[in-house]
């Protein structure tokens, strides 16, 4: 997960959160979400008891390694899972309506209207056989009863807004005639064409090179300011998180392990898994030093470890008495005087452990 | 695009020429004796020599092939028994045994085969693609398993058995036979109905499997997920976004299949009594009727290269990423 990290040194982030989160009405509210996939080998528990909320005009970054459930949970928010395959329980409230209990017809109306999604790889996420304009128009016309001409005007307008030069000509081109960055801009134009109040960006910069990444991040931040939407930004790149997020949700094995404002989580994380993430970022200054990866590999979601799912890979589990980490699943609770942040760990004094054991090792 | 087509046509012509030369060579390498066949059981060496001379079979093979090729381009004169018969270009010679120009025989047989194959193709494309697409959507369910099982069953029976069973037992279908389309389209269709159903339903099994596999793959693609995320109906996602991409490989197979079926509808023609290309060449084969045989080979190779060209050109319309130049 360290290969994509940008030069920002996250633990020194001093930026203040833009607005206090506490008194804002959440637009997206996920409560005790479970997503399971019954397979021939057993039930894959992809998401287990996930809860979070995002108000309008704020950005929540969900970080975690592959298989931590970040994409699966976000697809559930947009109602994209095949309900014959996925078992989804809990509630996902978007602007007051519950996505989990929607009918197929209601879901169709909801998707792409109030909420939309930018996908990871614009190369494979755009249809190769239809023009970019055609694809944007389809999105617009699915939610607005307008003529093709009007919809095309809108598509040209959107392409211009996401910074595509010469949109009137570009609108009739196919995705393969666009460069990678331009394709992602077109994807963003498509996602925003209906002025969604909730935008989910699933690793939108992973497939792009670093200079284009920065442009796309700026674009998303700008557009969010204009549109005033709530943004859920899925990534495994902590540099990107420091750049764009107000809050962070760290996921591990289908569940939240730490949640709070970005400067707090990156500056003084309280969960051993978050520590591991920070340690695995390479130092770009000074002598080249070996990386510190988190030992072991992510657990199988078919058989999630007992107790704290992170315990087999945790170097601090011996500091918790009575083998608690192996036997008891910790709750997601407030660990410090900060009410805005929570973590899921049995350690009694995680802030002190971070300062004495982890901080000196960070690059 | 034009330059591309021109290049392809030139290469197609060379393929046809090579095929003709190879067929010629095979004919002379094999122990064939058309003069003996024509002459019959009570035959004298002089008579055989006469026949050979009248068919130009006494000339060296290279000269014969030269004369044949020349005949296609500028026409050719045949001398038999003191009279001269002019054969206008494109001249493919006269049948040894039927005494008619090969072009006339082919012109009579080709529409029959084309009618059988095109009609059958309409049936198997509609049935196959539809069944495959539906099965792909309900993958893993009982319906899907039933569809796959049926295709397996149909595909395991040899085609001529199916055709025979249809011809013998499907007596509720109109009497099979060929009536030219331009005489009366209705009798044309009713005479071919049994053959169409037979060709169509047996081939539909294969097309169901192609379409099912292709659609399963396509429906798992990222752009299908994107389409779903736009809020359009499932039907639109499957048929506009999925089928459009999923059909491309099926079109490739279809082009090649069509070419093979046009040259190999022998079972269908024989069992349903339709005087098509397959029957014509099969008979020619048994009687060492070289001109007719070569005519069949010519038509077959032309159809094959033309279908390949058509598939390639169709691709540029299906997939905008393919640009010919």
Explain what the structure shows.
The complex is a heterodimer of chains A (363) and B (325). With 363 residues, chain A is of the alpha/beta class. Helices cover 31% and strands 20% of the residues of chain A. Chain A has a seven-stranded mixed sheet with strand order 6-7-8-3-9-10-11, with helices on both faces. Chain A has a four-stranded antiparallel sheet with strand order 2-1-4-5, covered by helices on one side. Chain A starts with 25 loop residues before the first strand and ends in a 5-residue tail after the last helix. Residues 1-22 of chain A have low confidence and may be disordered. Chain B is mostly helical and 325 residues long. Chain B has a two-stranded antiparallel sheet with strand order 1-2. In chain B, α1 packs antiparallel against α13 (290-318). Chain B is elongated, with a radius of gyration of 24 Å. The mean pLDDT of chain B is 87. The interface between A and B is medium-sized, with 28 and 20 residues.
Number of strands of chain B: 2
Structural class of chain A: alpha/beta
Number-wise, the strands of chain A total 11
Radius of gyration of chain B: 24 Å
**Cα separation of the termini of chain A:** 16 Å
Strand content of chain A: 15-25%
Describe the main β-sheet of chain B briefly. Answer: 2 strands, antiparallel
Mean pLDDT of chain A: 87
* DSSP helix fraction of chain A: 25-40%
Total of DSSP H or I helical runs spanning 4+ residues of chain A: 13
**In which order are the strands of the major sheet of chain B placed?**
1-2
The residue ranges of chain B in which pLDDT falls below 50 over 5 or more consecutive positions are none
What overall form of chain A do the CA principal axes indicate? globular
What is the gyration radius of chain A calculated from CA atoms?
Answer: 21 Å
Q: How would you classify the helix and strand content of chain B by structural class?
A: mainly alpha
């Amino acid at each position: 997960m360290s290969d994509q990290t940008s030069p920002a040194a996250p633990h020194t982030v001093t930026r203040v959160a833009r607005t206090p989160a506490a008194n804002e009405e959440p637009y997206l509210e996920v409560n005790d979400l479970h997503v399971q996939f019954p397979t021939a080998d057993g039930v894959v528990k992809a998401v287990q008891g996930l809860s979070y909320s995002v108000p309008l005009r704020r950005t929540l970054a969900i970080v975690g390694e592959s298989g931590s459930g970040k994409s699966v949970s976000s697809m559930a928010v947009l109602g994209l899972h095949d309900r014959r395959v996925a078992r989804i329980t809990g509630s996902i409230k978007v602007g007051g309506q519950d996505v989990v209990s929607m009918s197929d017809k209601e879901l169709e109306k909801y998707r792409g209207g109030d909420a939309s999604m930018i996908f990871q790889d614009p190369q494979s996420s755009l249809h190769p056989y239809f023009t970019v304009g055609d694809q944007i128009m389809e999105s617009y016309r699915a939610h607005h009863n307008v003529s093709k001409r009007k919809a095309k005007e809108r598509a040209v307008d959107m392409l211009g807004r996401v910074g595509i030069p010469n949109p009137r000509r570009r609108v009739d081109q196919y995705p393969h005639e666009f460069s990678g960055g331009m394709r992602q801009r077109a994807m963003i134009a498509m996602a925003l064409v209906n002025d969604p109040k909730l935008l989910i960006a699933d690793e939108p910069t992973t497939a792009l090179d670093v200079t284009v990444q920065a442009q796309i991040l700026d674009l998303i931040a700008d557009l969010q300011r204009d549109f005033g939407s709530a943004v859920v930004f899925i990534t495994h790149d902590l540099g990107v998180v420091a750049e764009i997020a107000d809050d962070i949700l760290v996921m591990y094995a289908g569940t939240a392990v730490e949640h709070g404002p970005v400067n707090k989580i990156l500056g003084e994380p309280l969960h051993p898994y978050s520590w591991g993430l920070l340690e695995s970022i390479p130092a770009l200054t000074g002598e080249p030093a070996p990386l510190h990866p988190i030992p072991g590999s992510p657990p199988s979601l078919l058989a999630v470890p007992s107790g704290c799912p992170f315990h087999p890979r945790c170097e601090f589990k011996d500091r918790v008495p009575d083998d608690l980490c192996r036997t008891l699943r910790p709750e997601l609770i407030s660990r410090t005087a900060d009410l805005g942040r929570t973590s899921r760990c049995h350690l009694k004094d995680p802030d002190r452990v971070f300062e004495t054991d982890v901080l000196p090792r960070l690059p | 695009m034009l330059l591309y087509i021109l290049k392809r046509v030139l290469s197609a012509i060379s393929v046809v020429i090579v095929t003709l030369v190879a067929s010629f060579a095979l004919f002379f390498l094999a122990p064939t004796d058309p003069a003996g066949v024509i002459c019959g059981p009570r035959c004298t060496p002089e008579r055989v020599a006469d026949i050979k001379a009248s068919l130009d079979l006494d000339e060296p093979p290279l000269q014969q092939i030269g004369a044949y090729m020349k005949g296609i381009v500028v026409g050719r004169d045949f001398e038999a028994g003191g009279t001269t018969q002019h054969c206008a270009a494109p001249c493919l010679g006269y049948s040894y045994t039927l005494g008619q120009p090969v072009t006339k025989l082919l012109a009579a047989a080709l529409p029959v085969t084309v009618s059988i194959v095109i009609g059958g193709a309409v049936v198997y494309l509609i049935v196959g693609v539809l069944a495959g697409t539906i099965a792909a959507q309900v993958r893993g369910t009982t319906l899907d398993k039933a569809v796959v099982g049926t295709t397996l069953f149909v595909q395991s029976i040899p085609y001529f058995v199916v055709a025979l069973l249809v011809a013998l037992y499907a007596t509720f279908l109109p009497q099979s036979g060929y009536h030219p389309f331009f005489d009366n389209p209705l009798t044309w269709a009713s005479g071919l109905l049994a053959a169409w159903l037979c060709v169509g339903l047996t081939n539909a099994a294969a097309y169901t499997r192609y379409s099912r596999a292709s659609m399963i793959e396509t429906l798992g693609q990222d752009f299908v997920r994107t389409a779903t995320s736009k809020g359009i109906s499932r039907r639109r996602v499957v048929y506009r976004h999925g089928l459009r991409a999923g059909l491309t490989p099926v079109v490739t197979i279809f082009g090649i299949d069509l070419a093979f079926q046009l040259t190999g509808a022998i079972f269908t023609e024989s069992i349903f009594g339709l005087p098509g290309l397959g029957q014509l060449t099969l008979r020619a084969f048994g009687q060492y009727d070289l001109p007719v045989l070569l005519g069949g080979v010519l038509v077959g190779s032309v159809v094959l290269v033309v279908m390949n060209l058509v598939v390639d050109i169709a691709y540029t319309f299906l997939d905008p990423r393919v640009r010919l130049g």
